[in-house]
Amino acid sequence: MLIAPSLLSCDFSRFGDEIKRVDKAGADIMHLDVMDGHFVPNLTFGAPVVKKLRPASEKPFDVHLMISEPHRYINDFADAGADIISFHTECDSNIDETLKLIEDRGVKPALAIKPGTNPQVVLPYLDRLYMVLVMTVEPGFGGQSFMPDMMEKVTFLRKEIAKRRLSTLIEVDGGIAKDTIATAAKAGVDICVAGTAVFGAPDAKTAIDELRELCK
Ligand code: DX5
Ligand code: ZN
User: Fold this and answer.
1) Ligand 1 nearest-atom number relative to CA 174
2) What is the spatial distance between Cα 197 and Cα 178, in angstroms, rounded to a whole number?
3) What is the mean pLDDT of residues 148-163?
4) Residues acting as catalytic residues
5) What is the DSSP secondary structure assignment for residue 13, as one 8-state letter?
């Protein structure tokens, strides 16, 4: 299991140092939540901030776009150094064209689905995806409760990925903690995003080690 701390729960006044801290603590991937106050009722940061953070770690930057028109910003996030860009199937941009923009920049493309979205919507694009992000809370805020029902979607996608002999990864995001991560692992998740569970813990390394251990 790969652990991707969500920086949404970090101390934003020390953003770069927080990335260095979780890097040292053993984070596999840096999960960066971009919100536009329109697709979700919250605002965070954009590509200029990601660009300034880029030198803080060599770990992959996983940029989760919770924005209505992702196609307008793909080049900016690619320039900023994103390794993975995920955007939502529920957004207002054309999915095929937005994926093409990501592919053309050599960035790894991912599609994200909200809790109310049927996973079938990603099937036409599955062969092109590096990753599918299954939300296990309503996007917008950290610290919400994990929705175990979403594991049905993980099982469904896992089967489809195996059937097509793809190497597409499955990521879950929201409410991942010591009492929920085993459920995700059992369902076949590859990457767990964890905000509160990492940044709310007294020691990030202990928190990450424990989360990984619980998947065995
Ligand atoms: C929610 C974000 C998540 C969030 C997870 O919209 O996409 O990445 O930070 O936070 P926790 O782990 O606290 O649920
Ligand atoms: Zn996220």
Assistant:
1) 14
2) 8
3) 98
4) 33, 173
5) G
Query: Rounded to the nearest whole angstrom, what is the distance from the C-alpha of residue 163 to the centroid of ligand 1?
Result: 30
How remote is the CA of residue 159 from the centroid of ligand 2, in Å?
24
Query: Is 126 within 8 Å of 160 (Cβ atoms)?
Result: yes
CA pair distance 10, 22, nearest whole angstrom: 10
Phi, psi of 161 (to 5 degrees): -65, -40
pTM greater than 0.90 (yes/no): yes
Length of the chain: 216
Strand bridging mode 108-113 / 169-173: unpaired
Q: What is the CA radius of gyration of the chain?
A: 16
Could you tell me if 207 and 153 are in contact, meaning their C-beta atoms sit under 8 angstroms apart? Answer: no
- For the record, the structure tokens of 130 come out as 């590096």
Ligand nearest to the Cα of 180, by number: 1
Q: Which of 25, 10, 14 is nearest to 208 (CA)?
A: 25
Token output for 117: 């979205």
> Amino acid identity of 187?
A
What is residue 63's predicted lDDT score, i.e. its pLDDT?
A: 99
158-186 pLDDT, tens digit each: 999 999 999 999 999 999 999 999 999 99
Q: Whose CA is nearest to atom 8 of ligand 1?
A: 6
| Alpha carbon 106 to chain centroid, angstroms | 18
Cα–Cα distance, 143 to 137 (Å, whole number): 9
Identify whether the C-beta of residue 67 lies closer than 8 Å to the C-beta of residue 55: no
One DSSP character per residue, 85-124 reads EEEETTSSS-HHHHHHHHHHTTPEEEEEE-TTS-GGGGGG
Ligand 1 centroid, distance to 102 Cα (angstroms): 23
